[in-house]
Amino acid sequence: MNEKKTKTKKNDLLYERKNFWKDAPAAEIRQAFAFAGPYRDFLNQAKTVRESVAWAEKLLKAHKFQALPASKANKRVYAIFRNKTMALAVIGSEPVSNGFNMVAAHIDAPRIDLKQNPLYEDSTSSTACMRTHYYGGIKKYQWVSTPLALHGFIVKSDGKTVDVSIGDKPNEPVFVIPDLLPHLARKEQYTKNLADAIDASRMNLIFSGMQEPAGEEKEALKAYALKLLKDKYGIREQDFISAELELVPATPARDAGLDASMVVGYGQDDRICAYSGIQALLANLDARPKRTMIVYFSDKEEVGSIGNTGAHSVFIQDFVASLLRHNGESDGSANLRKTFINSQILSGDVTAAIDPNYPGVHERQNAVLFNHGIGISKFTGSGGKSGCNDANAEFTAKVIRIFDAQQVFWQMGELGKVDEGGGGTIAYIMANLGAEVIDCGTGLMGMHSLYELSSKADLYSTFAGYKAFLISD
Ligand code: MN
Ligand code: MN
Q: Above 90 in pLDDT, residue 168?
């Protein structure tokens, strides 16, 4: 049968998501590509929580932001808490207590931490190794037999600190947790299910292999490794106990696909939303906002948002209290509560785009697709919406109105089929404070893997959506 190539008339009654590459103006397509380059650089510079905070602070200082308490005349302010969480704001012309517009994203990502007493000599294999403890929801088999970089921070017994970053530059060595060869995996691995085939206690890293020439010392390999560490970082074995050393993929973020329309790289959950959020706020700097604009970077989302740097911490409330004070408004608890109640927040976190290899875990009509824009999720959670923030219909409609007014490409999508699994975000934590909150972020493939995949169309649409939202009335 022949298909007639007639232009079909659009039915205004239908909800139809639009394909960015098909429908976006040529200038916007160029902008999407231009936006992705510095984003890739950011992914390579900010592979840990601390590095993300340091990266952001440098950017903010370049744009004349001041750490709170700041001079009263400055409308651009920020606060960093324990080097792992931060918030930045541009004060609007209306009182802060009228409510702010916030994009809230997390800057932690799944990774492999070194244990606090990690180093040992394995005499059986004649290697010096490091014991590890993974962080967040990983598929362990992805982290073996792949080049890893060691990033982190050591506080020595004298209180002096050392930054560690080894394995990213082409001339630096990388680290590997070797996987078992297939020839000998029949009993150890092939009889087990995927989750158990790699045992966490066997995710030890080969750290080094040399020893002192003609040395007679016991545990000569471990002693040699400690000597190298002393020479390079001035540390003793005990200093590992007060260190945060993390293994992250050594491979840099790259363009992906023949058309280079995608980005592949580590940590895009959720640094894609963090990056889009901060760039969206900076893009609004000349716009003289009515409502105060805030971007919040939280930590520990991948382990439950707990602790003094997670979204459950008092930090974000304290930050907003500081903004009230900075703006000459009462920072008393009633006014602080009122401020949150008057506020609107996009919980900027990634969602799962339909993967061609596993379409069955989604229900296509309610899942996000690559290249169709920023994903709006009214709720997350699992089972019967357990643990979710179910955004109010009024606020959902408002966000869609804001996006439509600025021709932002957007789509509605939930994370997978009902009862397929599930996941959460910090949306409910923010909503507990009384604000209107909805989940709104980029669809990824291969989420939580070492090589997460995103579409440049969706990255750009995330930026455009956040930009429109932050400046909205
Ligand atoms: Mn996330
Ligand atoms: Mn995650």
A: yes
* Per-domain boundaries in the chain: 3-109+266-470, 111-249
Ligand 2 center to 270 CA (angstroms): 7
User: What is the distance between the terminal CA atoms of the chain, rounded to a whole angstrom?
Assistant: 52
For range 233-256, the mean pLDDT: 98
According to the CATH classification, is domain 3-109+266-470 in 3.40.630.10?
yes
Between the CA of 157 and the centroid of ligand 2 the distance, in Å, is 34
Q: For residues 451 and 254, what is the distance between their CA atoms, to the nearest angstrom?
A: 10
Residue 382 clears pLDDT 90, i.e. is over it: no
List phi, psi (to 5°) of 313.
-65, 160
Report the distance separating Cα 197 and Cα 54, nearest Å: 37
- Which ligand does the CA of 271 lie closest to? 1
Task: Look at residue 405 and give its three-state secondary structure.
Answer: helix
Give the distance from CA 154 to its chain's centroid: 23
Q: Six-digit token pair at 205? A: 């890293």
Q: Is residue 91 pLDDT above 90, yes or no?
A: yes
Spatial contact of 271 and 46, defined as CB atoms under 8 Å apart: yes
pLDDT at 183: 98
How far does residue 259's CA lie from ligand 1's centre (Å)? Answer: 27
CA of 380 to the centre of ligand 2 (A): 12
Cα(165) to centroid of ligand 1, in Å? 24
Q: Are 278 and 59 in contact (CB under 8 A)?
A: yes
Strand, helix or coil for residue 300: coil
Q: What is the pTM of this model?
A: 0.96
Residue pair 276/463 in contact by the 8 Å Cβ criterion: yes
CATH number of 111-249: 2.30.250.10
How many angstroms separate the alpha carbon of residue 206 from the centre of ligand 2?
27
Region class of 173: left (phi > 0), else alpha (psi between -120 and 50), else beta: beta
Mean of per-residue pLDDT scores for the chain: 96
| Residues with a beta carbon under 5 angstroms from ion ligand 2 | 269
Cα of 423 to ligand 2 centre, how many Å? 8
In the reported structure, the alpha carbon of residue 73 is separated from the centroid of ligand 2 by a whole-number distance in angstroms of 38
Give the pLDDT band (50/70/90) at residue 2.
low
Which ligand does the CA of 448 lie closest to? Answer: 2
Span 369-375, mean pLDDT?
Answer: 98
Ligand 1 center–CA 269 separation, angstroms: 5
